[in-house]
UniProtKB/TrEMBL annotation:
UniProt binding sites for substrate: H115
Site feature: Lowers pKa of active site Tyr: K78
Start and end residues of each NADP-dependent oxidoreductase domain: 33-266
Catalytic machinery residues: Y53 (proton donor)
The protein's name: Aldo-keto reductase
Annotated keywords: Oxidoreductase
Length: 281
């Protein structure tokens, strides 16, 4: 599988999204701004933020100050829904605030997701209606969801989501959701692809053995596995050297046996290392 740092996937809308993203979860202030600048300097062209991360404005400033044209950077953010049913008009007002924060010129957002399947079926429909309206108006180019299970996806009204962003790594593979999304033409983004650098899991003999075989770091093996599965991984780091090394995954390819060995590490739902509300009612 030939991959380059500028490789992309075409979404159902016709827009393209870079295969590798840079996540800014829990990154605040200077470390977030410097992280985004370092990521862009290292060749990333896809930044993933969220209202709940409280750093959309920092991402917007960093992109504007980076020297990289806004048109070359794919910006994602997420609307954090309530557990209550909120009118679509109110949701629309809230998502408008993200446009002013994350896009320094207030022009457009490349992708906006519903962060979680909260609010029940009616709440999810209202949230989706607000995002769909913004997409029709053109200031959000693609819309999608995050942490949605198969029942949530099946009950969502048109249009079909471009993306479902879920926790994905060898220990938490969420295969039912992935299979459904792939069958429906919904691209799959992988958050926590580095298992939050879990020290115990990074000592797993399968991971260590494969990393030694390719003379790569465990983190690079995890990102490469995700890419070869067809996902869009969103590794997060605020350390310049790690940001750079996480992007150095185009000069090797995991063979079929190694992919099978990594697939065999799946622990199902208990393998999740983060918040994973895919079974929310």
């Amino acid at each position: 599988m030939a991959l380059a740092l500028d490789s992309s996937i075409k979404l159902a809308s016709g827009h393209s999204i870079p295969r590798l993203g840079y996540g800014v979860y829990q990154a605040r202030s200077t470390e977030c701004e410097n992280g985004v600048k370092d990521a862009l300097k290292s060749g990333y062209r896809h930044i993933d933020s969220a209202q709940a991360y409280h750093n959309e404005d920092i991402v917007g400033r960093a992109v504007a100050a980076s020297g990289v044209a806004r048109s070359e950077v794919f910006l994602t953010t997420k609307y954090m829904p309530s557990h209550q049913v909120i009118p679509a008009s109110d949701v629309y007002s809230v998502i408008q605030k993200s446009l002013k924060r994350i896009d320094n010129g207030g022009r457009y957002i490349d992708l906006m997701l519903i962060h979680a399947p909260f609010g029940g079926e009616q709440g999810r429909k209202n949230n989706w209606e607000a995002l769909a309206k913004a997409q029709k108006e053109g200031w959000i180019r693609d819309i999608g969801v995050s942490n949605f299970g198969v029942p949530h996806l099946k009950s969502l009204p048109a249009p079909k989501p471009s993306i479902n962003q879920i926790e994905l790594h060898p220990f938490c593979q969420q295969r039912e959701i992935v299979t459904y999304c792939q069958a429906q033409g919904i691209a799959v983004q992988a958050y926590s692809p580095l298992i939050r650098a879990d020290k115990d899991r990074y000592k797993n003999p399968v991971l260590v053995g494969i990393a030694e075989k390719y003379k790569k770091e465990v983190a690079q093996v995890l990102i490469r596995w995700s890419l070869q599965k067809g996902y869009i991984p969103l590794p997060k780091s605020v350390t310049p050297s790690r940001i750079k090394s996480n992007a150095e995954i185009c000069d090797f390819e995991l063979d079929a046996d190694d992919m099978k060995a990594l697939d065999g590490l799946d622990e199902g739902a208990k393998g999740a290392c983060t918040w994973n509300p895919v079974d929310q009612a």
